[in-house]
Amino acid sequence: MAVQRIVIENCAIATVDAGDTEYASGHIVVADNRIESVGAGKAPENLENVVRRIDGTGHLATPGLVNTHHHFYQWITRGLATDHNLFNWLVALYPTWARIDEQMAYSAAQGSLAMMARGGVTTAMDHHYVFPKGSGDLSGAIIRAARETGVRFTLARGSMDRSEKDGGLPPDFAVETLDGALAATEATVDEHHDASFDAMTQVAVAPCSPFSVSTELMKQGAELARRKGVRLHTHGSETVEEEQFCKELFGMGPTDYFESTGWLGEDVWMAHCVHMNDSDIAAFARTKTGVAHCPSSNARLAAGIARVPDMLAAGVPVGLGVDGTASNESGELHTELRNALLINRLGAHREAALNARQALRLGTFGGAQVLGRASQIGSLEVGKLADLVLWNLDTLAHASIADPVTALVFGAAAPVSLSLVNGKPVVEDSRLLNVDEDAIARSTRAEAQRLARIAAQA
């Protein structure tokens, strides 16, 4: 079959390549699922099999946004425990989360994915770690929702085996056994992970956190991931309380504990990493361990301000994460560009902490690095996969901001006129093409109400 091309012209372009190349008015040619050409001015003439031409006047083209940390199931528990710190929030919500089933997980994943995709996310991930007994095929339901939405997806198959009786936070009935968690994780990798260049679904091994997982699960989880050739993900150094927990239980801080269990390396990324000292950052930089920075969630749970400028200066790979929608109710990643910039300017580096282009890089190429896909996505370069977004800046909200990248990051959330994933349109004129947003809203509302009733009766 002949190659089919989509041509986008007359738009500003931020490629987010190694040199931060930008064009005030340029073109992008997509051939099937790859970027064939990107540059200044009009597209090359006499292109064959052009199935669509798009006038991008008034728009900015960027790589698609890459989300590096999320908990989709929390979509149906939004707006609860709004004045809690992390540990109290977890204790308040675990009894409800432990009642989720397959339909709830599917519906919540639909809601989470829809909200991200309509806001420019082309690669999503979900760290799902709650697997109540008899709840059905939760991993399969989440992957099905991602496939239907049309986004590229990484499922971080989580697990917990340290419950209240072992000094952890989850209820006893909400955790798996060590052997059960490892077996189920391996089965998920075998069934769903695709290692190909243009993979739409990948799987990572992701025990939940030091305070909900045994040391043996951490160690054997790392061994499993490396035997299978997949990435590793967990929560790390999110709060002061977590640091105290690690020192009391393991006799060392979180970073030293992670290193002792095989959890530092270029195939690892951690969520949050708020409370990191200089030696922690140096260890992450030395081992190329990645970080998913979740500024809104960190603020919502009063966790603190991650030292993102110091991490970047040291060479730590950093991407952005929505985090679960029970701690970031908006569920959007494009707003995290702005929040990452603003919140980090409240830290020690003040106005020099991050600029607009650094924030955009966190949400695109940085995320691709963290997910191990920087050779495939995250920048607009010839040969890379055609995951891109056309942002409409020809609006009242952005009309008087001359620089388009500044308008995107500092300004109000920009509408998405077009989002391509693997060369296929997923969003047009701020509406999802593959799924019914209104039906998803009704479904998630109903499942949230059903979960609340079940939890109240327990």
Radius of gyration: 21 Å
> Tell me, what's the shape?
globular
Q: How much helical structure, as a percent, in the residues? A: 25-40%
Q: Approximately what portion of the residues adopt beta-strand conformation?
A: 15-25%
Roughly how many Å apart are the termini? 57 Å
Largest sheet: 9 strands, mixed
- Assembly status: single chain
Number of helices: 14
Q: Uncertain regions: pLDDT < 50 for 5+ in a row?
A: none
What is the averaged pLDDT score?
96
The total beta strand count reads: 17
Pairing-aware structural class of the strands and helices? alpha/beta
Keywords:
single chain, 458 residues, alpha/beta, nine-stranded mixed sheet, four-stranded parallel sheet
Question: Could you explain how this protein is built, in words?
Answer:
With 458 residues, the chain is α/β, with parallel strands linked by helices. It has 14 helices and 17 strands. Helix 8 (278-287) links the parallel strand 11 and strand 12 (290-293). The longest helix is centred in the C-terminal third of the chain and has 21 residues, at 437-457. The protein is globular. The termini are far apart. The model has no long low-confidence stretch (mean pLDDT 96).
